[in-house]
Amino acid sequence: MIRIVAAFAAVSMLAGCALSEDVATVKYVPTKAEVVADAKPVGLTVVDARTSDRNRISAKINGFGTEMAAIRSDKDVPTIVTDALKVELEARGFHVQAGGRPLTVSINQFYNQYGAGVFSGTANGDVNLTVSVGTGAGAPVFTQTYAGTAKKTILMANGSNAAETVASALNDALAKMFADPAFVATLTGKQSPVVAAPAAAGGPTS
Questions:
Q1: Cα gap 35→141, rounded to integer Å
Q2: Is 95 in contact with 75 (CB distance < 8 Å)?
Q3: What is the annotated signal peptide range for this record (predicted)?
Q4: Any idea which architecture 21-187 has in CATH?
C-alpha cells in the first residue's frame, strides 16, 4: 500500500500542472576552446529547417507519458543557436562579420522529449544541425550534420528541465562540430574542398 501511494505521488509530481504551458530560458554553456591558427572571418547564417511551432522546445506529460501542454523558449531558437555559434567561433578566432567565409547552419531538431517512470522520469534533449561552408560562389565545399544529445533523470516535467537538456544537447552538437578537423580546416581555407555526406537525420521537430 505504501509503495502504491509513493508511486502515485511520484507520478503526480512528475506531471505537475500538465495543462498549462510553460516558458523557459535556454542558458547555453560554451565548450572548451582554443584559438585556431590562421582563423578567418566568418559570415554566419542560421536557418530554421523545422516546419511548425518553432518556439516549442518540449511538452509536459501526464502520468501516462502522454504529451500535454507545450513548453516554449522565451527566445526564438535560431537566436539561441546563432548566439551559441558566435560564442564558439569568436573563442577560436573566427570573427563573425559580413563578407566572411559563408557558413550556413540549418536547425533540423531542437527538442526535449520527456519520459515517465515509476518514481521519476527522464528528460532527453536532441539537437541536430547541418552546416554548409561556401566560398561565396557556387556549391558549398563542405557539408556535414552534427547531432547532440543529453539525458537526465527528473522529478518534474517542467520548462527548466527541458531548457537544461536542450542546452546540453546544443553544447554536445557544437563540441562535435568544432572537434571535426575537416570542418575547422575548411573554415580556415587550408584544406582542399571537402564534401562529407550528411548523417541521417530525423524529420524536423518543433
A1: 23
A2: no
A3: 1-20
A4: 3-Layer(aba) Sandwich (3.40)
Q: What is the mean pLDDT of the chain?
A: 86
CA end-to-end span of the chain: 41
Helix, strand, coil percent values for the chain (each to nearest 5): 30, 35, 40
Question: Looking at this protein, which amino acid is placed at residue 203?
Answer: G
Give pLDDT tens digits for 51-104. 888 889 999 988 777 888 999 999 999 999 999 999 999 999 999 999 999 999
* Three-state SS at 175: helix
Cell numbers 533523470 label which residue? 153
- The candidate with the shortest Cα–Cα distance to 89, out of 129, 44, 134, is 44
Q: Note the pLDDT tens digit of each residue in 162-181.
A: 999 999 999 999 999 999 99
Q: How many angstroms separate the CA atoms of 161 and 183, rounded?
A: 31
| Residues shown for the chain | 206
- β-bridge pairing 121-133 and 142-154: antiparallel
Virtual CA dihedral for 54, 57, 61, 66, nearest 10 degrees?
Answer: 50
Give the 3-state secondary structure of residue 149: strand
* Residues 195, 199, 202, 206, CA torsion sign: negative
Residue ranges of alpha helices (H) inside the chain are 2-15, 77-91, 159-179, 181-188
Alpha carbons within 13 angstroms on the beta-carbon side of residue 121 total 29
